[in-house]
Amino acid sequence: MKFQKHTITNFHISFGKEAFHVELFKKEKQGSTLYWMEDETYEIIWYSSDHAEEKIRSFLEKLHENFEETLINIYNQLGGVFELFIHNKKSNKFLIVNDLYGVNGSFYLTKNNQLNFFLNFQNFNELEVSLEFDTVGLQAHFAFGYQVKPFPLPYKNVARIEGGKLHTFDAELKAETKQLTINFSDNSGDFSLKDGMNATENLFFGATAGKDSLALLSQVEEGNATIIAGNFGEVYSADVIQGKEVAINLDLEYKFATSCDEDEFEYYATQIATISGGLATTSYVDMLKFVAETIPEKYSYVMGEAGECVRMFFPEDANLAKAMDNYLTPKEFLVDLFTEDYKEFLKEYPENISTEITKNYTGNSNAKILINFYRNGRLPGNFGNRHKLLSVFRNKITPFLHEDFIKKTHNLPHERYKRDKIHEQIIYKGNQDLLQYFKNPIQMETSVQNWNHRISGDIGIMLYKLLQKHIHALETIFNTEKVLKLAKKQQKTPDRGLYFLFRILSMAIFVDTINNAVAPCEKR
Fold first, then answer.
1. pLDDT for the residue 313
2. 118 close to 471: Cβ distance less than 8 angstroms
3. Residues with Cβ < 8 Å from 231, sequence gap 6 or more?
4. For residue 317, what pLDDT is reported?
5. InterPro entries this protein is in (predicted)?
């Protein structure tokens, strides 16, 4: 049996009646783990940093013994963030399943009677497909800042593989989808995140003032030489000060990265746009620099993503529309910048968005609707984009999505999610010395990225310069003059409009780059 381990930055997988083809993309000192297995019956692509090789081999043995039952019960055996592609060479059927909430869901499109799957958009021009905007998808994208079910992606004919389901395609590309389930535990017992950290030995922890980070660090053995902790940003921010203090108290090696200067902002903003297809915000520049330049090559980045799946931010009687305001772009920015084609959508905004959320994310209270939205909407949409960015540079581990932790915590009464009780219990059991930071976290006036200050200087000038260069690619969506006017205004009086511009910039760079790449192909 062929069993290969690769470190990749992207993949293209095509499937059709005539062929099954896999192309892996690699860059020196970058990437994350993919396994490629093949025998006389199956060819399997397994993409994940959350699974040790021993765990993968064990699952493959079960798969060969009882194929259908093993796949149907996959979430009881595998957690974390992953994606599994299986080509049955005898029946010429193609099966795909990814993690429970779809954080790693790949993108796909149909071309020349073939399905083409791709991990990210970094090599999109090689598919030689022109971009066409989807009006509904664009509206939803710039309302949320990321894709949220049931809304489509902002590009026509490009979709994303949903989590929690087994997707099966036959040779004629006819699709069947089966909803999969997980068996929640009746006895929650002690909550631990340690099992989610066993995929590899060398771990790099993001150390911040957040409770997700604190819970993860409470699981660490003091003085462990294989563990590094670190952070980035403004030296006098709470995240940097508390993160460093906790790392030192745990006797861990500590690393720090400064925020991007204007040239680094341009470089990493372009990376974000290219990798995410313009779907991830360019406000991630500092984090991407941190991962690319500070985390050693052989280390896996441990993040607190999905910790909010077991925390409750809103009371049971919260007004849904008001609560959603924290997730949505303020109406005044959309009204001012969108072209006339989008005015009808804006008449009922944001009520039309909150209505769709209520329909598609169920619960018998607004609080339960919102936590359902977080797990099944925001997690795969927003954090899925970020996961794909960071994984181009380093392996990334997500202990809060380990299968045993999900089984114990994701079906608890919502009372258990209030006041961060689960996190407090994890820290209490793991390292009681860290409870002081849970109860009285360090607080500072300066934010970790300090955008309101940085945008008034060279970063603001570079943001304007990049928008001026690329915004013409979105002229059918936005009034380009007003976009540039807003960029000037944000340099003087920054507000939430700045984060809207960060999202606009990402898509503008990507679309402009692809249009310039596709045009010569069309001429040939």
1. 65
2. no
3. 206, 207, 208, 239, 240, 243, 244, 256, 257, 290, 448
4. 62
5. Ntn_hydrolases_N (IPR029055)
Superfamily of domain 194-312+393-439: HUPs (3.40.50.620)
Place of tokens 């209030």: 418
| CA 409 to chain CA centroid, nearest Å | 21
DSSP string across 78-139: --SSEEEEEEETTTTEEEEEE-TT-TTPPEEEEETTEEEEESSSTTGGGG-----B-HHHHH
3-state DSSP call for residue 8? strand
pLDDT at 517: 78
The full DSSP string for 364-419 is SSHHHHHHHHIIIIIIIIIIHHHHHHHHTTS-EE-GGG-HHHHHHHTTS-GGGGGG
Give domain 2-179's CATH superfamily.
Aminohydrolase, N-terminal nucleophile (Ntn) domain (3.60.20.10)
The secondary element (H helix, E strand) that includes residue 38 is: strand 32-38
Per-residue CA distances from 30 to 6, 389, 392 (Å): 11, 12, 6
The long-range contacts involving 360-363, CB below 8 angstroms and separated by at least 24 positions, are 360/149, 360/150
For the chain, the domains span 2-179, 194-312+393-439, 320-356, 451-523
Distance CA 41, CA 503 (A): 45
Mean pLDDT by 10 residues, the chain (524 residues): 96 95 97 97 97 96 96 97 97 98 97 97 95 94 92 96 98 97 85 93 97 98 97 98 98 98 98 98 98 97 94 69 80 96 91 85 83 92 96 97 96 90 97 98 97 98 98 98 98 97 98 81 42
Tell me what pLDDT residue 322 has: 73
Q: What is the pLDDT of residue 391?
A: 98
Nearest to 96 by CA among 163, 30, 145, 12: 163
CA–CA separation, 257 and 62 (whole Å):
44
